[in-house]
Design brief:
Oligomer: single chain
Radius of gyration: 24 Å
Mean pLDDT: 82
Number of domains: 1
Structural class: mainly alpha
Number of helices: 11
Number of strands: 2
Strand content: under 5%
C-alpha cells in the first residue's frame, strides 16, 4: 500500500519522469510531406543518398543541403521532435571531423594537389584551406542526406513505410519487419519509463541524482525487465502472425498503400534529375571532386 501511494505521489510531483516523445518515429502533424506517398518519399531519399555517394562537388552538395532544409521547413517537423537523434548525429559528425584531421591532416592537399597554409601546427598537423574544404564537403554530406532520411521516417506511418518498400521490390517479409521495428520504438521507450518509475517507487534510483556507480547498478534492474518484456512481446507477435498465415503467399496487398498523384510524380522526376546531375558532374569535373584551387 505504501509503495503504491509513493508511486502515485511521484507521478503527481514535479520530479516525475513524464512519458517522453518517441526517439525516432512517425510524428502525426500533417503537412506537405505527410500528403505525399511513402513510395515517392522513399525514391527521393534514395536519390539524395545516391547523389551524395557519387559526388564531392560542393555546388551540388550545397544545393542538396538547401533542399533538405527547405523540406524540413515545410514538413512541420520540429527540431525538438527528433532532439535525441539530432544530438547523436551532431556528436558523431564533430567526432568524425576531429578524427579525420588527427589521422589525415594533409588528405585535402593530396586530393587537390595544392597547399595553402592557414595555421602551421607542430609536425604534420598543418591546417590548410584544402583540408578545411575537404572536411566541409564531408559535413555537407550529412546535411544533404540525413535530414531527408529523418523526415521520411517522421512523416511516413510504419504501415505505409512497409508498403512503399514493397512497392519498390523489397520482399514484403523484410518490409513488414522494418515497419514493426519502427512501431515498437515508442512502445519500448514507454515501457522503459514505466519500469523506471516502478523501480524508483521501490527505492532504486536511476536518475541523475544518484551516484554514477549506484545509477549503473540500478539501471540493470530497469533494463532486465525491459529486455524480457520485449522478448515476450516478440514471441507473442510472431505467434500471432504465424497463426494468421503471414508469409504463406509470395505477394500481399497493403491497406495503407496509396496511388501516386501529381505531387508524387513531380518528386520522382526531381529525384531522377538529382541523380542525373550527380552523374553529369562526374564527366564535367573529370571525377568526383570539383577543385576550386586550380
Amino acid at each position: 500500500m505504501l509503495i503504491a501511494r509513493y508511486a502515485v505521489q511521484r507521478l503527481r510531483s514535479k520530479e516525475t519522469i513524464h512519458v517522453a516523445k518517441a526517439v525516432l518515429g512517425y510524428v502525426d502533424r500533417p503537412g506537405f510531406l505527410h500528403r505525399l506517398t511513402g513510395t515517392a518519399k522513399l525514391i527521393l531519399v534514395g536519390a539524395l543518398v545516391l547523389a551524395a555517394m557519387l559526388t564531392f562537388d560542393a555546388r551540388l552538395l550545397l544545393a542538396l543541403s538547401a533542399l533538405s532544409m527547405v523540406l524540413w521547413a515545410v514538413s512541420r517537423i520540429k527540431l525538438s521532435d527528433l532532439k535525441v537523434v539530432l544530438l547523436i548525429i551532431l556528436t558523431f559528425m564533430l567526432l568524425n571531423n576531429l578524427l579525420i584531421f588527427v589521422f589525415a591532416p594533409r588528405y585535402g592537399v593530396s586530393l587537390f594537389g595544392t597547399e595553402h597554409i592557414i595555421v602551421a601546427g607542430p609536425g604534420r598537423w598543418v591546417l590548410t584551406w584544402e583540408q578545411l574544404f575537404y572536411q566541409a564537403l564531408v559535413t555537407l554530406k550529412y546535411f544533404a542526406v540525413l535530414p531527408g532520411v529523418l523526415l521520411f521516417i517522421a512523416t511516413t506511418p510504419p504501415p505505409e513505410f512497409a508498403a512503399s518498400l514493397n512497392s519498390l521490390g523489397v520482399p514484403y517479409r523484410f518490409a513488414y519487419s522494418v515497419s514493426l521495428a519502427l512501431r515498437y520504438i515508442p512502445d519500448v521507450q514507454r515501457d522503459y519509463e514505466t519500469i523506471s518509475i516502478a523501480q524508483q517507487a521501490r527505492g532504486l534510483d536511476a536518475s541523475r541524482k544518484a551516484p554514477l556507480g549506484e545509477r549503473a547498478k540500478n539501471l540493470l534492474a530497469v533494463l532486465m525487465p525491459l529486455l524480457f518484456g520485449s522478448l515476450d512481446r516478440i514471441e507473442t507477435t510472431s505467434a500471432a502472425m504465424e497463426l494468421r498465415g503471414f508469409g504463406s503467399r509470395k505477394k500481399r496487398t497493403w491497406w495503407s498503400a496509396r496511388p501516386l498523384r501529381l505531387g508524387d510524380w513531380l518528386i520522382i522526376l526531381a529525384s531522377i534529375a538529382i541523380v542525373g546531375v550527380a552523374i553529369w558532374l562526374q564527366y564535367v569535373n573529370g571525377g568526383r571532386f570539383w577543385n576550386p584551387f586550380v
